[in-house]
Amino acid sequence: MKYLIIPKNLKCLEEYQKNGAEGFILGILNYSINYEEITLEELKKISTKYPIWVAMNKNIRNEELKDVERILEELSTLSIEGVLFYDLSILSIVQRKKLNIQLVWHQTHMVTNCKTCEYYWSQGVKYGFISNEITLEEILEIKRNTKMKLMVQVVGYPIMSHSRRRLIDNYFKDIDKKSEKEVYQLTEKNSDTLLIRENQAGTTILFGKPMNGTRALYDLLENEVDYTILDMHFLEDSTGIEVLKLYQEIKDTYKKDSTSEREEKINCSYQLLGDFTNFFYKKTIYKVKRG
Questions:
Q1: This prediction's pTM
Q2: Which of 55, 117, 155, 266 sits CB 3.0–4.6 Å from 84 for a disulfide?
């Protein structure tokens, strides 16, 4: 298993790498959502120093297709690990142009079953970024039944939804005020806190607690899941480093750790991240309203 980091900036890449990070996911300027964005020129420099996965995970407009094709052609000449895609135009371009790019299926809420993973694998997509809305049991079932290499997020604030609309700007225009923040907290009475972030790509709503996948990490390691992802957005740099150090220790010792030693490390992670485990142990239940 390799640990991939989604950094909130470029300052700590070297420190992360020293403490066990085996790759970083960065977005291409104007073509990614919820990733630190860099230009192609910046990427050319960074990719000579670090293993970089490139996120191009937004819906592509017709007028952007020529530029996307140009970017993909340039990426195919660089030493990058792969490209995370949402829009199928990227898969189509890579196939049509026969570009030397490893692709990661990254359709946020849709990577949920082995059958579709196998279909994309047959189309040349060798990696899948698993949805955050399914259980650990379901993740391991996918692992057993697909040839695709899987990426599973274990740390970070889960994304609930994204809209291309500028919802925050629209709200402040409606009340005749100016938005002064990039991120807002929304807390309703007797409910959880949400984080609402807006930039040129639109508006993203995230759950207000970071997921802590430390307990699940042991099962992911034992079942040889290929990659786990730590999203460091909204975490203090020092917290991110401590979490990575703990995870590196777990990877080194999980085969010989006793139950009490495992629990001690899990409790240590609670001090850093809290005890929110997202959907790892909780199935999503859909209810149909009668009538």
A1: 0.93
A2: 55
